[in-house]
Amino acid sequence: MKLEEEISQKNFRNVYHKAAVNVFYTFNWAYEFHTKILKPFNITPQQYNILRILRGQHPEPATVKLLKERMIDKMPDVSRIVEKLRTKGFVERHICEKDRRMVDVWITQHGLDLLARLDDKNDELDKFMSNLNIDEAITLNCLLDKLRG
Question: Lowest CB count within 10 Å: 1, 53, 136, 139, which one?
Answer without folding.
Answer: 1
